[in-house]
Amino acid sequence: MTKPTATSSQLSSAVIAEEKRLRGTRYGLLAPGILTIFIIGIMPLSIVLVYSFLKPGDFGGVTWELSFEAYVQLLFEEDIFDETLSFTTDYLEIFWRSVGLGLVTTIACLLVGFPTAYFIATQPPARRNAWLFLITIPFWTNLLIRTYAMLLILRDQGMINLSLIKIGVIDRALPLLYTDFAVSLGLVYAYLPFMVLPIFASLEKLDFRLVEAGYDLYATRFRVLKRIIIPLAKPGIAAGCILVLIPSLGAYITPALLGGGKKLMIGNLIELQFGQARNWPFGSAIALVLMVLVMLSLLIYLRSGGRKGASARKSIDLKYQPGFSQIAWFCIVVLYAPIAVLVLFSFNQNRSVTVWTEFSFDWYVKAAQNEGIQHAAWVSLEVAFIAMVISTILATMAALVTTRTPPYRGLNAAITVINQPLMVPEVVTAVATLIFFAIIKQATGVTGIGYLIAAHTAFCIPFAYMPIRARLEDMDLSLEQAAADLYAPPFKVFRRVTLPLMMPGIMAGAMLAFIVSLDDVIITLFVAGPGETTLPLYILGQIRRGVTPEINAVSTLFLGISVILVTLIFLFGTNKNKGKQ
Amino acid sequence: MSDQTAQAAIDVRNTSKIYGRDREHGVVALDQVSLTIEDNEFFTLLGPSGCGKTTLLRLIAGFEQPTHGEILLFGEHLEGLPPYQRPVNTVFQHYALFPHMTVAENISFGLEMLERPAAEIKPVVDEVLGLVQMEHLADRKTDQLSGGQQQRVALARALAPRPKVLLLDEPLSALDFKLRKEMQVELKRLQSETGITFIFVTHDQEEALAMSDRVAVMRDGLILQVGDPSEIYDRPAKRFVADFIGDINILRGSVVSSQGDKARVKLETGYEGEAGLPAGADDLGNRVSVAIRPEQLSFADNAIAADLSGSIQHISYFGSGFDYEVLMPSGESVTLQVQNRGAGQHDYAIGDEVHIAIGANSMQILSD
Questions:
Q1: Taking 80 as the threshold, does the pLDDT of residue A523 lie above it?
Q2: Which of A51, A109, A189, B310 is the most interior residue, by most CB within 10 Å?
Q3: How far does chain A reach from its first CA to its final CA, in angstroms?
Q4: Does the distance separating the beta carbons of A4 and B13 come in below 8 Å?
């Protein structure tokens, strides 16, 4: 017989060794993703903080001298002659407009988005997927192109004005474009899917037997909605509001295109400081104020308990709410009408983007022959492809160690770091990355497209991470245990069971990363060097010079690619569900 | 140690599993449990949820490591061995069949991992498929199978590598009543045909009694009693065991005298008779609980043959018989279970004064 004490200590040392090994793998797999985001995402933010307390350099950059000038400038104007300060509301107005437009956008999105999400959630499964698909496509198609489509129909010679004149309601074009109205309409249009999807997610989990119970206890339709459905959907509503508000506050493209030079928002103001005004400290200070605004909204969100909601499955009827289906259809029309106009006129033979003459592929041929477009397309594909590969690998490793283990210290922190790029307005990230890379370039003298790829990789990680993690969380841990029980050592468990089962998630993640990289405008705008013009940047440049059908053609092609990729992601997603039933 | 055949299949020695920092701050899932399971036994761990039965199974499988103690498989220490180095297999509660593989691929997985040559694998897969009567579905994907079929595949997969011990974690709980009965017979047959030691975890007492060679009743991380089904049912050692398995009447009484595993007890109702005494229950004190199964009580024709008497308070009919609840002068109630012998036959009514006879050797003293 063996001595029990000896085996006991032997046992605990075996257990400790095992745990040490686990911890080793855990941090080994987490480190690359976390490090990438930390270096390219978080460190630059602190540099922004430092820069906001420095003096501007003469040709951009900074001089290393402590100064509060940037913050003073926010509220006071310095007289050029006697250097006295006087209070000015110029910048406050822009902040106020941003917050106001952000809130208006959020409320409008909620009013349209909630009924839409409810309507979708109450559809039979097959039709529900079709609706979801329709909402998801605009979600992942290029914001720049969609905003451009909006511009097309709001112009003086746009669809709306032309048809209003035609039916005789007005005789001169209404000045729709370059107004606050246009900007908020563009914002609603841009971020509506961000509201619908999270609300749908929480309504989908709603147990409709609760609704039946409500009716059973004499509640009317409206009261059921108010007392049962809305409270239960609250986590989704809160998440939707935050997802709309944050990007609205930091919006750049929408006010730039639809607000013209007149209706600036914070995002444009920041860009201005790094572009024409060459005042990096002031730009940094504004970026920080924007961050503070975003943090405040996040804080309110977390306080309001934006956490997990109800569970269980649904069963039968009584889901109807009057008017909701009409709103849902309206929502689809709003999302697709501008795109439809854009696509339609890309096939117009005429040079006009408003008057239809004849069907032709002329503009596609022209676009294909344009060297600028060819070059931009190559740059886009190169950056998107490399960023996709690297970010997907990093995200897969990170997802494995944030789901396949029991909770451990630092788990939540790790998830927060990975999701960091999602929580910071893009324009702030862009500014931070610009400054950070400028420092590195100055110190090392190294230039090249590597910087752009690194920046894209960093913000692609959370997008690739989301579906992979979701997939892993859906996978039963006992499958891996069963494999281990059947004599598969850890690596074989991974190769034969975990990896094949998580593959749909990885594919979806990779495609998301690809789309996100392909679509990016703002970060690329700040980070891209000469000769690194991506397709969206090229389109942006062309739009600023004027509207041509050639852009419509390129945009349509671009949309086509996005639609194909989203469709593929969607197919991977639904396959997963089928497998589970 | 040289003679493998004489050794226990599983020897659990003084094993504890504590989740959390330590005994005071954590959860004690298993509390210094010792247990021996013989080779070729159908052994059942029975208890309510949270009693530690599944934890014990997972310790044997190697999914968890014990906090203290040791576990031996045919004399060999298992501690520190990962699950894939232990010659035991598990049938999971929800089967855990690999959804991306066919039935045959699922079954051959373990053999492939053991690096058996392909020529050897094929006949084994066919054999176990035959054993569970699933030959015709070998090329199906597992999500196209019914619950019962999935159950059979899970069994076949776990049996294919010929484990020394097969662990079954409530494998029948997801099946409906009819199918469950069928699978009980099936499991029993598989066990005797393969000669593999089965360790079966369940919270269903009927299942445990119907299938097992021996049963261990567990609660709160402790094993309360180990024995064959009739010992567990007829001679429960503890109040919890008596209560958990089947219906039981528990009456107050006192010990008059005791010898070996028998004692004379006097019930508070006045009846005096012989009762079984649980092993190791020396200092029960004077006052004891005495258990009698409802089917061991019967109506007596007259007062002379009566051991107990009282009036009927409640009658419930359940098809194959009746339960009569009788209130006695001592203030205690007993339930009698009487077989249904004729269509709708119903001799007694509520309020009737009745006499009751206690069957021979049917009283058992319980410790708490």
A1: yes
A2: A109
A3: 51
A4: yes
